[in-house]
Amino acid sequence: MFIPAIEGQGTEEQKQKWLPMAHNMQIIGCYAQTELGHGSNVQGLETTATFDPQTDEFVIHSPTLTSSKWWPGGLGKVSTHAVVYARLRTDGQDYGVHGFIVQLRGLDDHSPLPGITVGDIGMKFGSGAYNSMDNGLLRFDHVRIPRNQMLMRLSQVTREGKYVQSDVPRQLVYGTMVYVRQIIVSEASCALSRAVCIATRYSAVRRQFGSENGGPETQVINYKTQQSRLFPLLASAYAFRFVGEWMKWLYIDVSKRLQANDFSTLPEVHACAAGLKSITTSATADAIEECRKLCGGHGYLSCSGLPELFAVYIPNCTYEGDNIVMLLQVARFLMKTISRLVSGKMPVGTAAYLGRVEHLMQCHCEVQRAEDWLKHSIILEAFEARSARMSVACAESLSRFSTPEEGFGEISADLVEAAVAHCQLIIVSKFIEKLQQDIPGKGVKTQLENLCNVYALSLLHKHLGHFVSTGCITPKQGALANEQLRSLYSQVRPNAIALVDAFNHTDHYLGSVLGCYDGNVYQKLYEEAWKSPLNDTVVPDGYDEYIRPLLKQHFRTARL
């Protein structure tokens, strides 16, 4: 975030000065925004940057304990510089939060500069995991920096201390957010595919029960209970892959529009990026843990690769926007979109379906047989109707409160569910759009169609209450969807291993004994056990002091 922040918020002169040094690693930068007392509420940050017209400098200061910068990655031990977000104060006024480039450590001996207290915040979740990142704490004691180290593309302070807004639209800042969040969505698919690859391969190797006449036991992957938990996760990995690819295109498109001062799609794009970041990371974190459970007791071993993957991944649910806060931003966008329909302003992009809200509020699902759920038009309309009806219901509820903010606070849980429905619709629609492209090989397309249907119908089954309670489908149609889902599992099963092999993850990358490509799981588990430091000795340290006295019933001398 250090470089994107300068690229998005720095002037051309500032970019020419700082970016070459950052790209060449002459300086190492971090992004110091989050504080001990404030994370999601950026406008509540307490660090101050007060302009001193006598010296043409800003004075960066941490006035309270809770104003300490807390969590920035790379800050604890490594970074020499930071983009610090602080409240700009000049001419007796507070102009809110702005970015400033601040040097933290000397470039010769790496020691903290005068007035700067910096360190690591300590151990985090897991034994290894994200602990390799030096998330840091940072406090300022009246640290002075030149005026030109305020990022001044969007606004600036003159030599005389006057605050001036530039002609550059402030909406350009959102371009950086979209960039970072589309990367996170793509990484969700990558992490999920790793977990699914491990669980699928191990499920094919593992056999339990079902032996007949002394024959082999049943492969765990052949049990419907295993398939109903595993195959929707496999489908999700593909779905997130495709929506991630689409988001890359979306970022390129919105960047071009922003450069041309076209902000027409920005609210929709920002809501889309926020919502998909939330949905994909939450689903992936839950899915990695589910994959661990799918691997039984062996999944709890460190050498399975899943505990470490889970511990490394779960911060995604919080950083770059807490997932619930992100969904509430999506909900605000949906409520604004619906309120503007009255004036005839038609929504665009992923919200375009709301322009057909009258039809979606009245339409009836045409499913009569289980196979009807294989029609993408029926799936899409069901998801559109659910999302539209949940959003309209929230809008109607909000209208009954004296103020929008009061209503937003009271029905925030309903708003989150409406936002989830909207985001799930986006992912389903992008999967369907992918299938409409020219996909080489009939067999490949058939398997992708199966995965698309598994993804959509498993979501429908999981959120059946919403689909039925909003009148989108009947209970009977919900039962038919579940019937078709069971049939789809049987179609995915013969190709499950090929579908995870297609991710092309090497054994080194997976880092898992259970997910090894050759399937020689038990031999590798046995070999891995002997690598434990506890096996360096036959008789454990402390035997004479603790264990032997107990065994010999010498309780008075036992140290336990």
Please characterize this protein's 3D structure.
This protein is of the alpha+beta class and 560 residues long. The chain folds into two domains: 2-167, Butyryl-CoA Dehydrogenase, subunit A, domain 2; 174-210 and 217-439 and 447-495, Up-down Bundle (Butyryl-CoA Dehydrogenase, subunit A, domain 3). Helices cover 49% and strands 10% of the residues. The protein contains 18 helices and eleven strands. Strands 1, 2, 3, 5, 6 and 9 form a six-stranded mixed sheet that branches. The protein has a three-stranded antiparallel sheet with strand order 4-8-7, with no helix packed on it. A two-stranded antiparallel sheet has the order 10-11. Helix 4 packs across helix 12 and helix 5 crosses helix 11 (412-435). The mean pLDDT is 94.
Low-confidence stretches: none
The CATH topology label of the largest domain is Butyryl-CoA Dehydrogenase, subunit A, domain 3
- The CATH architecture of the largest domain would be Up-down Bundle
Mind describing the biggest β-sheet? 6 strands, mixed
Number of helices: 18
Total strand count, please?
Answer: 11
The multimeric state of the shown protein is single chain
Structural domain tally: 2
What is the secondary structure topology, with strand pairs?
Blueprint: H1 2-9, H2 12-23, E1 29-32, E2 48-52, E3 57-61, E4 69-70, E5 81-90, E6 93-103, E7 116-120, E8 136-140, E9 143-146, E10 155-157, E11 163-165, H3 173-205, H4 224-259, H5 266-294, H6 306-313, H7 323-340, H8 357-362, H9 376-398, H10 404-410, H11 412-435, H12 442-462, H13 464-469, H14 475-492, H15 496-501, H16 507-510, H17 521-529, H18 543-551
Parallel strand pairs: 1-5, 2-5
Antiparallel strand pairs: 2-3, 3-9, 4-8, 5-6, 7-8, 10-11
Helix pairs in contact: 3-4, 3-5, 4-5, 4-11, 4-12, 5-6, 5-7, 5-11, 7-9, 7-11, 9-11, 11-12, 12-14
